[in-house]
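Batch 3, record 17
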Amino acid sequence: MGILVDENTRIIVQGITGREGSFHARACKAYGTNLVGGVTPGKGGQLFDEEVPVFDTVAQAVEETGANLSLIFVPPPFAPDAIVESADAGVPLIVCITEGIPVLDMVKLDKYLQSTPVRLIGPNCPGLITPGAKCKVGIMPGSIHQAGRVGVVSRSGTLTYEAVGQLSDLGIGQSSCVGIGGDPITGTSFVDVLRMFNDDSGTDLVVFIGEIGGTKEQEAAAYIKAEFTKPICTLVVGAAAPAGKRMGHAGAIITGESARVEAKTAALQDAGATIIPTPADIGITAQAVLQQLK
Amino acid sequence: MGILVDENTRIIVQGITGREGSFHARACKAYGTNLVGGVTPGKGGQLFDEEVPVFDTVAQAVEETGANLSLIFVPPPFAPDAIVESADAGVPLIVCITEGIPVLDMVKLDKYLQSTPVRLIGPNCPGLITPGAKCKVGIMPGSIHQAGRVGVVSRSGTLTYEAVGQLSDLGIGQSSCVGIGGDPITGTSFVDVLRMFNDDSGTDLVVFIGEIGGTKEQEAAAYIKAEFTKPICTLVVGAAAPAGKRMGHAGAIITGESARVEAKTAALQDAGATIIPTPADIGITAQAVLQQLK
Amino acid sequence: MKIHEYQAKEIFARYGVKIPRGKVVRTPQEASRATEELGGQSVLKSQVHAGGRGNAGGVKVVRSPKEAEDAAQQMLGKNLITRQTDAKGVPVNELLVEGLADIAQETYLAITIDSSHRGPVILASAQGGMDIEEVAAANPDDIHTEPVDSTLGLMPFQSRRLAAKLGFSPELARPAAQAIHALYRLFVENDCSLVEINPLIATGDGEIVALDAKITVEDDSLFRHADLYELRDVSQEDKLEAQAADLDISYVSLEGDVGCLVNGAGLAMATLDAAKNAGASAANFLDVGGGATDEKVASAVEIILSDPKVKQVLVNIFGGILRCDIAARGVILAYKNKNSSLPLVVRMLGTNVDEGKAILRDSGLNVTFADTIAEAAQAISAAR
Amino acid sequence: MKIHEYQAKEIFARYGVKIPRGKVVRTPQEASRATEELGGQSVLKSQVHAGGRGNAGGVKVVRSPKEAEDAAQQMLGKNLITRQTDAKGVPVNELLVEGLADIAQETYLAITIDSSHRGPVILASAQGGMDIEEVAAANPDDIHTEPVDSTLGLMPFQSRRLAAKLGFSPELARPAAQAIHALYRLFVENDCSLVEINPLIATGDGEIVALDAKITVEDDSLFRHADLYELRDVSQEDKLEAQAADLDISYVSLEGDVGCLVNGAGLAMATLDAAKNAGASAANFLDVGGGATDEKVASAVEIILSDPKVKQVLVNIFGGILRCDIAARGVILAYKNKNSSLPLVVRMLGTNVDEGKAILRDSGLNVTFADTIAEAAQAISAAR
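Prediction for the assembled complex:
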């Protein structure tokens, strides 16, 4: 089980002939992902790794391969076009890895996507993986994952791997792991992913990792309190970050009290989450909760 | 019964202090419409006709009067603002009479309104009336209407009155009459109104009046064929209009075969509609169909 | 509102769309000089607000300045009659003199508003340089329709797709996409209802050039485009239609002899249909509009009375936003101003109808009242 | 990217937003002359990329050209330390000399992107001219938030509402609305992440004037704003942070002694948190980014090694888009280039981890390997 992808997911990579695109397309394929094609305008007709057909347009790729997920590695100035091209071609799920898309472009894209049935994961995200379906759609190192029944959701990339690494080291497998992305505006929210985990019979526990900045964790807390029915372990990082400084592209701007770790942790605790004390304790906290479930 | 409005509808008029706005606000009130307020920026605090409070903003009007319908008489350059102001203030039903709103403004408005739960009737329309609820929200002459069980829908203003006049002359009352407006882009389509009539237990028969130009009648015909369960009489005007000439603001541009009267009439006939042979036969055609229903 | 080809091309150039070298001339001498400047050969194009110029002799290729002068002499100052004009045609006051283009490929491109897509659409066909309506009728699949989302604007993948549908090679895709983007921006920023290029060509040098240019600005948007309104050329419009347009009255001249005053476009069309069914024929379509004053109604009736074809007048007013008393006063005023005695069939209903009828009854005009649209049609038919 | 007040005001003026008369000066003599031109009195404003200038002595009112010269002498060439700078402060290289304003009313206006509204929002408060964060904390209701729909843009009813929330009288509503519209257009057209005016004033003459001006351009959008990028003033930035920014590395200088190289902002924050929990303290936040090459990693490590505070280095790499072997090569290159022997704690996982560790093991550097984030934190704590 798991969410968003399964054995029937047919994946194309936009930007498959680029440096990052080709590296990760190969890694996804090696993991077992059903990579059915790639898209690079002007390179239609080529074969990627002597096997995967490359198309000029997403529409052609969809028509020829029946693709239903597009994974995007396209530089920021061209990524919005790539996303809309996939949406226009009827691809229902789009995962955009690209970091650095101008926020006003995302504002427009978000409006547009809301008028379509398309779901976008990202941008500026590591993608998602469902180990049980051998389906990796992103840049996470596949080897650290194990199939299992814990869902992981995070704004961050590498911190998600950290969480997964700690889980797998304790023999705790994952149903699905989703990085929603660190930008101020993302296609999919914490709440969207939590809702899917809530409905997924293959997920027993969720590990949730938030950050300073914004109020996304509070929105998640409100949803957890109102509707979420499963145990959840949460970590919010950034306690050691000084106020008023912007920490990278993580949307981690301390804008007020509610953006601080304490406020977010308090909201999640109030919602009934089990608080993970430090970044080193992700695995053991999850393990403890799972043991109680038995 | 009837559609869209009832005894609980509380109406404000935007542009109530203007020439058209004041005339028609008065006429609606005289008909029995529950006019609870008016809006003209800068004239808040006045009383219209010594009775109806005028507000500076729609938000104030809604807060003070509980208005749930706004009827707009505001010149074209300001009408989009008036519509969005009402939508923003949470008014669920907006009727815009204004003629001459630039089409690209409507394109944007339409996009925006689709992301809200708000319904817009018009622009460039006569409004709507439900005689049984003594609720007239528009510029139609109230006196020609009778309460009854025939629904009327049209793109046109005065041609709707013509239809109603012929019905009432034969003693056939109306459940509701709706003019969707003659512009290329309107908030509410024929199909939207037909769907409501289909669900309305107070409507036995619908009189549908189309025009040359565009393909709105074909879209209606497709819906009628697929889902509409009630008898319907249809007239399409413009047979005597020469090809290639634009006839007023009615969106009546003959753009191709499908825009012609013959094509539209054929589509409606194919959908099972009773065709009204000439504009003089609206009443008698409806009468004949009603007699068969008995 | 239509503008001339040369005016449209000036706007194209401002937006970075390539156009042929050329000059507008108003005399044969200027045509000669312009042709000389263009290297001794040129094409002379009549500047008229009507399609079908080519078949009607409105476009001539000349091989020398002298030939240009002679051809311009023939063209300027005459009326050009095309399949899109009436029998009088439209006056040719200006010629656009352009250098001959090196055409490698001809395509068709247009942008308009499509109500079923609820926004702008771009039409593209590799079948350029021919009658596009014939192409559409014979091979609808040869015309590609690309709807544009107004929030996003035209996206690059769409212009790539359009360039491909236009039949351009990959090398031409980039300049073609640039031109399409520029035209879309032009369309939106100028509130156009139509931008059309037939043909949009590729030259032997690999340039994308707009060989023709048509821009129609949406009338409802002219209030915010004073600069474009200045390009209006009244000489190209039917005199009565232009007069009506100035008064914001929708008027279209037709072939019959019954002048029609109606409020509302739908009712006006229904009135035309009813008249035709009764064996009469309308001299015009006229929608006096909703918010008309008595002066405006009077002006509308004066326009009707100015038409020598008109033998009788049919008034069909269903009072709503326009009140019957106002309509009645306007009709009387016009008959007085024009000192007319043409028979008048009046059918009035709706707001203030009793006042309106009383005013007309007391006016001394030769009025026949009708209660229904059918009676009105019969009355005008009987009076013939 | 921040720009100076005077640069922001030039952009304001271009968009039709009124600003005080003024001049940028770089010498005391220029300050004197500018004050003379302004009628003998002026306000001298330090041009620095930091808030809190006023309380820190960075803004001075002078009553004569001589006084201006003396004050400018005091201010120019010095570092200004405010609550938003570090202990070194930021250099004052330019002063904006402005005429004294006739202030009738002070308000606060800002535009930014709000992720919970998924688009631009306009913040307005009648409490202008004071610390807006204090206002927000004490009386949140005094700050009005107006979200703008990006499809429609800012609508007139919204600017009327904003003018009312700013506390302007009905007579000032129109000029205020015009200014707000201009600022919104400026925000969108220049891809700003912040436009802020504190105070936006009404003068005694009923003019709306931006007395202050703050513009931050979104870094991710700079690729399409070459003109704005030219306004960058590196002198205002932390030297190492500026160096990092040039390399597209996220780096923030902190107070501790452990230099940190991490990939990913979230993991970098988690690393800081873990270090703190173990009793150590980071010298910096550094996210080397996803698509880093070995040269870029090397540059990042060199920046860390350039910081004299740094006593040891912690590398925490979870290979994903960045591969461990590349990170390892970069670290070695930097240590070699800087000829450094600082102790190095390395925790690596993920893509190509074995290669990465092998490369480091063979490098001869003083490396302690850790398997977990907890072990890494303990290792740096133990090495202190």
